[in-house]
Amino acid sequence: MDNSFASLPPAFYTRLMPTPLPAPYLVAVSAPAAELVGLTPQQLADSLDVLIGNVAPDRALPLAAVYSGHQFGVWAGQLGDGRAMLFGDVATTQGPMELQWKGAGLTPYSRMGDGRAVLRSSIREFLCSEAMHALGVPTSRALSVAGSDQGVMRETVETSAVVVRMAQSFVRFGSFEHWFYRNKNDELKILADYVIERFYPELLGADNPYQALLAEVTRRTAHMIAHWQAVGFMHGVMNTDNMSILGLTLDYGPFGFMEAFDAQHICNHTDQQGRYSYANQPQVGHWNCYALGQALLPLIGEVEATEAALAVYQPEFAARMDELLHAKLGLSLLDQHLDADRALFDAMFALMQANSVDFTLFFRRLSGMRAADAGGDEPLRDLFLDRPAFDAWAEQYRARLRAENSDDATRRLAMNQTNPKYVLRNYLAQVAIEKAQNKDFTEVARLLTVLQRPYDEQPEHEHYAALPPDWASHLEVSCSS
């Protein structure tokens, strides 16, 4: 174990040990994540005190990093790892991977918090991190979740838990904003040089490496958010302190997957103004990149160069979104059809909106349509109240399929590797959480197994792909989640 972030000057973090939790118990481990760092699930189970932060691994250098950020569009000042501690990085086949405890106790950056995470939110982060990875979305990973009966107060008293999460880096946009707004250009340069040398060495030879860094982070962010939109994922708290400098989905809190389609859907009950709605995510991502560009301006040196780096966002997002939507509909990305295809997509989303159609089921069932005739339409058609409107759109879609001589079997196979059958619906997470709160962790493990193969049919788990029950519409998640 190493800790490259600890090689930065002491101003970047506070060294400290986690606060122990009594009588820990293991909730779940991710075998694929464990394999990535060369461990087995049994080795993790045998290291429970390490997983919950009661014991630090050999050669670990636990620390809490300082950063700042904009929260809901407002400058919030100093923030930092209020309940997370980085304890080191390990070599993997994908390069060094940093490991963090989340929920390990008070740090100097906890502000009014208690430094703890609750079992409810920890299970949600654990499951969604691994689910998003299986969906092919850039994300941090989750190695394990462990619990303790020690109580913490949220809306009610809940029990504590710790997630061990992993990423190549947990440096955020807000890490750079912290130094910019303090006029600490030396520290700003130290951090930028560290990030470039460790994670973007190909940029070292650029005419302006800091401009190149901003352009690459902007490009990755645009691609990540296009992936979010394509799977119907809503982050819920796209503050600049939650934005990864590597373009990873980071800090799972009040997230949600789109069910009944509503472009203005707000998954975070705390977000009363709807800043982070599904429809707003792309433009908020752009706004956040501008906040990073502002922070890097002293290093880039020129406003024009900064704006040029940021200008990659819109075309990169649009191009990636085009690719993903064409794949979701089983269409080839052909220039001669591009304008008509975008009109087809717009009409599709308008139809889904008007009929409150389930996002995941719509795209999964779409693969069953045939190019020649309406055979195979019924499972999809059943999702719509306005059947004639669906029929009209379906005929346009079939005509487009015929225009490229689409083969039904080949297309269906490709679409089912692009459109997941299983996503982490809020009610599925809630069922697993309620059982886990009674010390029954079988549903967490079962749900994790299903979500690690989201594109497979898994007939034995068919009920995980069903429309949500009526009671699920009353579920709310907030920043405390």
Automatic annotation (TrEMBL):
Top-level taxon of origin: Bacteria
Record: residues binding ATP: 80, 82-83, 102, 114-115, 165, 172, 251
Binding-site positions, Mg(2+): 242, 251
InterPro entries reported for this sequence: SelO
Record's catalysed reaction(s): L-threonyl-[protein] + ATP = 3-O-(5'-adenylyl)-L-threonyl-[protein] + diphosphate; L-histidyl-[protein] + UTP = N(tele)-(5'-uridylyl)-L-histidyl-[protein] + diphosphate; L-tyrosyl-[protein] + UTP = O-(5'-uridylyl)-L-tyrosyl-[protein] + diphosphate; L-tyrosyl-[protein] + ATP = O-(5'-adenylyl)-L-tyrosyl-[protein] + diphosphate
Active site positions: 241
Pfam families referenced in this protein's UniProt entry, alphabetically: SelO
Cofactor: Mg(2+); Mn(2+)
UniProt cross-references to PANTHER family, sorted A to Z: PROTEIN ADENYLYLTRANSFERASE SELO, MITOCHONDRIAL
HAMAP family in alphabetical order: SelO
Protein name stated in the entry: Protein nucleotidyltransferase YdiU
Provenance organism: Duganella aceris
